[in-house]
Amino acid sequence: MLETAADMFRKISRSVGIEWAPLNVPMSRRLQTLAATAWVCLALFGQGTLLYLFLTLLYSDYWWLGILYAAWMLNDIDVCHKGGRTIQWVRNWGWWNYFRDYFPIKLVKTADLEPSKNYLFACYPHGVLSSGAYCSFATNALNFHKLFPGLTPHLIVLGGHFLFPFFRDLILSLGTCASSQESLLYLLNPKRFQGNCVAIMVGGAAEALDSHPGKYKIILSRRKGFIRIAMKSGASLVPVFSFGETDVFRPLNNPENSLLRRIQEKVRQITGVSPVFPLGRGMFQYSFGVVPLRSPVTTVVGAPMEVTRNLEPTDEEVDEVHAEFTKRLVQLFENEKSKYLKNHEEVQLVIT
């Protein structure tokens, strides 16, 4: 009778388009799903939730703790532009390993990087939430320090994230820093640091709007600020590509000039954040939700491109370095895509 009821429930669910996860899923996979769910909830709702908790604290009997924290935060507000505040204990949290194994995510190197130099990792594609770059450079789950001994990664994120109480402390502990010229030049200053790897999502929030499964459309032609930063600091440019990044969500169809796309662009211009409405699966069913899909992501770190330090590069000099970097990024994509994409013969890299 129980089996009959269960079969009937599945039949009804399928008729309305819902496919439930089986009950006999191993505990390890349940923990992986929980870790992925927690990550996406942190990314989507973490700022608002922690801001609410801070305001609640201010209006509680412990308001004085909120005042003390606010005073400390104001005094500490520029740390995201001054190298951040990495806490290895947070980067080593065990749940990052479950997050890594959920997709799974892998980090691959194609060349050795000398720890005596600084590097600017130009990462593509942004995808919806940059899961590959996040796991590779903001956690120790992929053993970055073993692959690249003597190097220290810093993932660059929007400066606005560091204005939210408590949330800022969490992302600072992961080694992230603000996406400002001041921050990048500080981290890449050869007189101050050696072995820093600054990972920046060059396409940014605008590129997230073009993230669709099986498609690799990136924004590079008009992005030259990172080239200028590399030239001013003398940091080597390293192309980084996350294969499979665009497959972990199924965003709504938003062709150019559509009403949805115009609304998204307007919101992005105002807030700096792209409202991409990540569609994936749920915790207990595979049909809808905001949990990312179980789709492999492989972040490949290319060979370094040496850049001569030039404190005042001309536009022509920037264009020359930009053209060479573009060539190397395309070469990395073409050389590696057959290893990590099933339909690699049909996939093309579109640069805008």
Please outline what is shown here.
The mean pLDDT is 93. This protein starts with a helix and ends with a strand.
Textual characterization of the structure:
The protein has a seven-stranded mixed beta sheet, with helices on both faces. It has helices at 2-15, 27-58, 63-75, 88-91, 95-102, 131-137, 144-147, 167-173, 181-187, 204-208, 225-233, 259-271, 315-340; strands spanning 105-109, 119-124, 152-157, 177-178, 196-201, 216-218, 236-243, 297-301, 349-351. Helix 2 packs across helix 3 and helix 2 packs across helix 5. It has a single domain (18-351), classed as 3-Layer(aba) Sandwich (Glycerol-3-phosphate (1)-acyltransferase), CATH 3.40.1130. The protein is an alpha/beta fold. The model has no long low-confidence stretch (mean pLDDT 93).
Index terms:
seven-stranded mixed beta sheet, Glycerol-3-phosphate (1)-acyltransferase, 9 strands, two-stranded parallel ribbon, 352 residues
Protein topology:
Elements: H1 2-15, H2 27-58, H3 63-75, H4 88-91, H5 95-102, E1 105-109, E2 119-124, H6 131-137, H7 144-147, E3 152-157, H8 167-173, E4 177-178, H9 181-187, E5 196-201, H10 204-208, E6 216-218, H11 225-233, E7 236-243, H12 259-271, E8 297-301, H13 315-340, E9 349-351
Parallel strand pairs: 1-8, 2-5, 2-7, 3-4, 3-5, 6-9
Antiparallel strand pairs: 7-8
